[in-house]
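<context>
A single protein, sequence plus fold
<sample>
Here is the protein in question:
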Amino acid sequence: MSVTAAQGFTAAGIAAGIKANGNPDLALVVNHGPRLAAAGVFTSNRVKAAPVHWSEQVLRGGTVSAVVLNSGGANACTGPKGFQDTHATAEKVAEVLSGRGDGAEHNAGEIAVASTGLIGVLLPMDKLLPGVETAAAALSADGGEAAAIAIKTTDTVHKTATVSRGGWTVGGMAKGAGMLAPGLATMLVVLTTDADLDAADLDKALRDATRTTFDRVDSDGCMSTNDTVLLLASGASGHVPVYEEFAEAVRTVCDDLARQLIGDAEGASKDIRIEVIGAASEEDAVEVGRSIARNNLLKCAIHGEDPNWGRVLSAIGTTRAAFDPDRLNVAINDVWVCRNGSVGEDRDLVSMKDREVRITADLSTGSASAVIWANDLTAEYVHENSAYSS
């Protein structure tokens, strides 16, 4: 049930006609309270889409009563008109929800907006705005799955996750299959909880969770203009959880969704778990892990099931991390093919037939570590992205 697993939320996903193929393309998630607390994190790309600028402003207030999301168009690099369209979308959602006769009043300043799709194209507002009315009429406590389907772009599957603890729940949905790289990976994510927590606690839990989950997914080294991750709390369960338990639940849901993003990466045939150990600092471990994840020669080798550890060392060598080249060790699927910067165990012992490939890079410098998830580079990835806008 994803975003509607937690009490106090309804959702809908409909086809508004934004996508030329007629697939679902508009989702609405509504928080019915009693609490309307929220937190969000967004792309670190300096080129930001209009809905990112809008939602960043909304989240400064710590209150969100609804989120409207569309696929089929990013509304990025669309100038003042694009921002006006985002504002008009939020105004329409507030108007429609306030007129539903349930006594709840909504205002545009508490409506988050998120978009995904092709950059540089204005949204068809003549379809999107009537679609808001259709989505509002379809809102349901069972609408989480439909909402998750409606935000897909090149995703082959919709992505949801839930965790329940002692009377309260965290649920979530995500989209993302390409342009997966920090910050955040190219994705839209909405997380919901019926725990009774304020915006400050939500913000801390969300930032701690994204730092070690979404921010460590690195599929193709490309960063989106539209990344948005929102966490909404309704307080409908009446439970005030211990913060540490809540933060762990949020991280578990984020980790689940992040793994689903990598598993559905465009054209991928291998999921690559890169663990850097023995680093002088966590920052060094992350930098090395990212360098390995972005090495296209290595990604091609893994696609061909070639345990080419020399490409791992080459990637490590481009970083600023502290290490001695003569003390580097590399394992591929638990076979230490490189020892002390040179030949280790027989590479023929490495089996790479399974979907998951594990690379361990030991810097032999300290005790810090980090895990980065990536995927291989395939002809299917090139084909899909060569035809993306056509």
